[in-house]
Amino acid sequence: MAWKNIGINLSGIVISCTLIAFLIFVVLPSFYLISYIFLRWDEVWYEVFANPITGDENWRQIIRILLFSFKLSLSAVAFDLVFGVPLAYVLARKKFPGKNLLEDLVTLPLVIPTSGFGFATLITWTSSSGLGRLFGSTRLLSMNTAIPLINVPFILFIVHVALTFPYLVRTVETKIQSIEETYEIASRTLGASSLTTFRKVLLPLSIPGIFSGSVLAFARSLGETGATIIVSGVSTTASIAIVRWASEFKLSTAAFMGSLLVLIAWIMILPVEIYVSKNRRSSWRHLHIPTNLSMKIIKFERFLSRKLSIVKDTVPLIIVVILIIIPVVVVISSVTLYWSADPYTGRVEGGVVYQLFGPSRYLDLILRATLTSVIVASISTYIATCISIPLSFIIERRRYGHILRTMLKVPLIIPTSSLGLSVLLLWGSSGLCLVNSGIWMIILTHIVFSVPVIVESIIAAYEGSGMQMYEETARTLGANAYSAIEAVSLPLIKGGIFTGFILSFTHSLGETGATLIVMGRDTTIPVLVVNMVEALAIPAALFTSTYLIVLSLVMLVIIRILTQR
Amino acid sequence: MPEVRLVNVTKRYGRILANDHVNLTIRDGEYISVIGPSGCGKSTLIKSIAGIIEPDEGEIYIDGKIVNNIPIEDRGIGYVFQNIALFPHMNVWENITYGPDVKGFLPEETKTIAREMIEMIKVSARIDAYPDELSGGTQQKIAVARALMSRSSLMLLDEPLGALDLKVRSVLRYELRRIAKALGITVLHVTHDQEEAMSISDRIVVMRKGRIVESGKPLQLYMKPKNLFTANFVGEANFLVGKIEKVSEKGLLIDIGNGLKVFSTESKGNIGDRVVVAFRPEFVILKEKNDENAFFGEITRIVYSGSLVRITVETASGDEILIKNPLKFGEPPPETGEKLTFSIPPENVLVYPYPEAGLHKELSLE
Amino acid sequence: MLPLVELVNVTKRFGKITALNRINLSVEDGEYLCILGPTGAGKTTLLRLIAGLLEPDEGEIYIEGRKVNKVPPEERNAAYMFQNYALFPHMNVWRNVSFGPIIKEWNQKRINDVTSEVLEMVRLGERKNAYPHELSGGMQQRVALARGIASGARILLLDEPFGALDARLRVNLRTHLKSLVKDQRLTAIHVTHDQEEALMVSDRIAILREGRIEQIGSPQEIYTNPKSIFTISFVGGANFFEGVVSRVNEFGSEIELRGGLRIHVSDRSRNVGERVVVAVRREHISLGKSRRRGFNNLLGEIEDVMFVGGSMEYMIKLENDMTLFSRILLKGSSTPLRRGEIVIISFHPRECRIFEYPRRGLLKEIEAI
Predict the structure, then answer these.
(1) What is the mean pLDDT of residues C243-255?
(2) Contacting partners of chain A (3+ CB pairs under 8 A)
(3) Do domains A1-39+342-565 and A57-337 have the same CATH topology?
(4) For testing contact with chain A, the best of C49, C50, C85, C90 (most A CBs within 10 A)
(5) Residue B213 has pLDDT above 90, yes or no
(6) Would you say A233 and A152 are in contact if contact means Cβ atoms under 8 Å apart?
(7) For residue A144, what pLDDT is reported?
(8) CB neighbours of A511 closer than 8 A, spacing ≥ 6?
């Protein structure tokens, strides 16, 4: 209550500090890469285009890799759309037992450690202890088995689908939830079957959400690093290329690729944000279907609606099961399988216990990495939360708020490896020279993508709470702006703050791509998985992946309990 | 053939009985209103008829056919929503022609019917306008036109005027009736506003806590409501507690305490019964000489309500009586503190058995 | 005596739309003022300006004598009540009501005393531990009122306080609200679109239309002396006759209607040849079988009979094809007239109000949809 007296200036100070912190910790790292390119154009030109040894080979490589990445991401998003939109509809509109569980499963890929998940998927499909076990211990596929026609490796494809699926589904689900169900009921009372209703009423109104979700999913796929590194085999995506080149000290090439990706992310996001924020009547200006065809389509939809209502509810469910549940189950059961020895050769050295406690003492590494991971997650999430809470209020209350919100989308969609590289170049020895690679740089990196996650969570709670009304009431009852926030607003969004904190903490625990670049000599658990896979200590990798995945699941359950209250 | 028939329709939400074995018959061409306080189940009922909600028990017949398992789109009804629900991404014309379009009507036919409908409903908006450019009243008219386009003979109106200003409501409700009668359709109109229902319905159904309490013609419900709740819900009334003292062929004499007696032309009841006496404020007569059922009292409050005066009088026994009288031009208005004599014609005195749940609970509007 | 609240030439714009245009209004201490008007007239904007939730683009607002344009809401002593009450969902009834006193840092005893007292006033003392979602609409409204009163505010700003309640419930609660406000000697500014409500509860009514005040006066004044067609139509409703002034003498004017019908009105303010609209309230039109001396008498046929809230309303078609409405209070023994009956409609010249024919046309003025 003593705030009353210092009232006037406090507001200005808080806002300025928050905005400065936002600029330094989030915006700068996100965009630094681009300025790096401009500052060091000569170096970049030299290495990429006019290299004395390789000519413009680097540039050609960049193009090839980018095209491949695009192909991969586009096909993943296409698949997402076909199965994700109906799933989003089911989640938004229907009530059924186990719906919460399904929601959590769909959210899982958002928090699951990408390297652990990549590994789990690899085991499931390619090793003899995965699904192959059901068919008599054969390997089902190899890492490089490609999907015909599009020529994209199958495993890589399904990993990208699984990791981008939630972005699309959740965005579309939120959009559909915001559309009054009355429109659909009205359509049906006018004689339209549920499929016709979906096509003529719901779809046009949810286009902004579908668009938004697709772009988000595409960007996520472009930037996906952790799992990709494990399953890519001989293929290279843009984000992995950055990691490889950074480790080979071809910094300029890596930076150039990174900037291109950031630019592409920007170019995609900006028009979509502008379009969506305008909230114009949908642009689905009736594709003019000739009447005869239209009548036939309607008849067909009526027929389908009657027969297929169950089918369209279950097919997306099956997809979720295949993509997500199976790898998780496989990895956990594999740990038990490999516990004491390799089940196929009997070698004790091939067992989990041996690798953990034997000469290589992976257990020590795991414990040390756990400590690092937890320290990083705690500190970065804490700092991010301190920035996010006032930032959310600024976004909701100031006219320039929506610009800030758009800027916050960028760290979410640029490749994590790009981000890592940016932080490295900015704060490290090539830039400001303030921080060395290692735990502090990892923390700085994690703050960048934690802030958007927490802000989105708080804003969702804010907008759903009707807060403005309660605050205004409190003000007219005698509360000044701070007392109103303290007594009314914060309690109303505390669920959002907690959820954001936990989501961000869990994500930080499992983050791989950026960490790989900035870690120096410190290791986090997900990086350890990558190392173990590269060292072919498969059982140890199995164990660590399981450990990580279980940790994430536990976190999700905690969120679920908190939000039920 | 009755248009709609509900037999023992029941719907539960957890432990709450939203509809409790409701039986209702609506005849072809009737304009029926279902009224009741919030939570009485009227919304659940109309949604069950439309197919938006499935009842847990009971059958619903439309035009003789049982419709319990028939999906919404195949029931052949028109529905108007409280929040209007015009498709925001379609203009007026597209909204109106939506029904015929999805039912496969030929475009020429659709155009003709649509133009007729716009003419009849007197829609003043441009057909290329979008809903968010129009006023609430205009939007609702278009929603009504849209619902009528499918040529169904049953219209379900779920608080159709709820989202509109009082002034707009009082005009639009007559339009609803005019259009319904002109087209000869059956209407079920749900509302919490009893005045709205009374002014346009052929019959009114009163619901409370999931059950139908009473149904009848508007004037009937107003003049001779069959139970206390209706008497209180449909218009205002004064309530006094008393005991039946004498029963004769002419009527009942009730002792309301403090030596006051009231005579009613009602005949049902036995000597000694504890009863509640009710009469409407509009039927009270201000007179000088002693009439049957004369009361004295002091005016405690005067409120002018346009053309009416609402006079609250406190009697010797401490009862507060409300009187509604038209303002007479030229006559000096009464003032607080004045003593007043008034009487109630015996045929306007209603008598009800004292309710088990207590008077306050029985009259509760929530 | 200085008015408690005063608005001087207040204007508020939203983009290109002028929501309020040079509003001048003063509210006395202890007054119950209603702001009445259709949706979109600017009523809520006006209330929010007084509360301090919005700032005017032009003009000044004075509360308790001092200019408050830049003064934040918490210092204005005016409690705002939303249509849906905005009871803090995470606090029970007791904490909601004691919110104001606690924020104002009164001592604990005073907080407890005031909160209990106010809860007793609204008869919700027993529900003090309940949470808002457990209460009915009417109860929530009472808690919101209690909260405003307990905060010690001198002014209550009520935004459609009955809007979320059933029609029948509103009638009962109106008188309670008025008594509560008067007993506590508070000043109330009550926004509504319900003219019956405004007529019943206010000391004065300000009619707001498209951002301007159309008329201010006591309910009786507004009802018996409406200054415009909009007002007479919005408050109480009326029948409108379009015609031309054909004669003026010391007794009044004669108006020629469509079809050659003539009526007399007491008003002499118009000139011969002027196009006018004559308004007669529905309750001033009586129906009978014979002509009444000194009254205007016209022949008509009953087209429709409706029962409206304790009165019979008759729709009558006149010889010149005009449609009229007559409203007659239902008195115990009267038998209603029937459709098809031929009657003589009568109304007195004194009960006619005459207006200049509106430029925008009659329909627009009475805001027919």
Answers:
(1) 90
(2) B, C
(3) yes
(4) C90
(5) yes
(6) no
(7) 73
(8) A113, A114, A226, A416, A446, A449, A524, A526
C212 against A148, higher pLDDT: C212
**Given this structure, which CATH class describes domain A57-337?**
mainly alpha
**Full strand arrangement of the beta sheet holding C262-265:** C262-265, C252-257, C239-249, C275-280, C352-356
Q: C5-233, which class in CATH?
A: alpha beta
Which pLDDT tens digit goes with each residue over A521-543?
A: 888 888 888 888 888 777 778 78
Does B101 contact chain A (CB < 8 Å)? yes
Q: Please name the fold of domain C238-361.
A: OB fold (Dihydrolipoamide Acetyltransferase, E2P) (2.40.50)
The arrangement of strands across the sheet holding C323-329 comes to C286-288, C342-347, C296-308, C311-318, C323-329
Report yes or no: A180 at the B interface, CB cutoff 8 Å. Answer: yes
Per-residue tokens: A84: 């994700």
Please name the residue of chain B whose CA is at the shortest distance from the CA of residue C308.
Answer: B199
CB atoms under 10 Å from CB of C107, counted, come to 9
Query: Which residue in chain C is spatially nearest to B178 when comparing CA positions?
Result: C304
In A94-249, where does DSSP find H-type helix?
Answer: 99-111, 114-126, 154-178, 182-189, 194-197, 203-223, 226-231, 238-247
Structure tokens at A34: 């681009």
Segments making up each domain of chain A, as ranges = 1-39+342-565, 57-337
pLDDT digits (tens, 9 = 90+) for B242-253: 999 999 888 899
Average pLDDT over residues C147-151: 95
The pLDDT score that the predictor gives to residue A264 is 83
Give span(s): CATH 2.40.50.140, chain C: 238-361
Indicate the range of B57-66, B255-264, C17-26 predicted with least confidence.
B255-264
CA neighbor of A517 nearest in space, from A250, A258, A244: A244
- A500, two tokens: 């954001």
- The DSSP symbol for A288 reads -
The residue-averaged pLDDT of B208-221 equals: 93
Q: Which residues of B touch C39 (CB under 8 A)?
A: 136, 165
- pLDDT of amino acid A282: 52
Q: Of B50, B81, B99, which has the smallest distance from its Cβ to A182's Cβ? A: B81
Closest CA of chain A from B90, distance in Å: 8
Examine the pLDDT at C360 and tell me if it is beyond 60. yes
Judged by a CB distance cut-off of 8 A, whether residue C72 touches chain A is yes
What sections of B302-364 are H helices per DSSP? 359-362
Q: Name which of B141, B195, B310 is nearest C369 (Cβ-Cβ).
A: B141
pLDDT of residue A5: 46
Residues of chain A with pLDDT under 70: 1-10, 128-140, 277-291, 308-313, 337, 340-346, 349-350, 358-360, 430, 563-565
Give the residue on A whose Cα is nearest the Cα of C48. Answer: A472
Give span(s): CATH 3.40.50.300, chain C. Answer: 5-233
* Residue C48 to chain A, least CA–CA distance (Å): 10
Q: Chain B residue with minimal CA distance to A199?
A: B102
Residue B140 CB neighbour total at 10 angstroms: 30
Residue in A186, A281, A291 closest to B85 by CB: A186
CA distance B193 to chain C (A): 5
CB B276 within 8 A of CB B241: yes
Best of C43, C166, C177, C234 to disrupt the B interface by mutation (most B CBs within 10 Å)? C166
| Lowest-confidence region among A405-419, C109-123, C154-168, C177-191 | A405-419
Cβ(C149)–Cβ(C96) under 8 Å?
Answer: no
Using one digit for the tens of pLDDT, what is the confidence trace for B79-98? 999 989 999 999 999 999 99
Domain at A1-39+342-565, CATH class: mainly alpha
**C163: contact with B, CB 8 A cutoff:** no
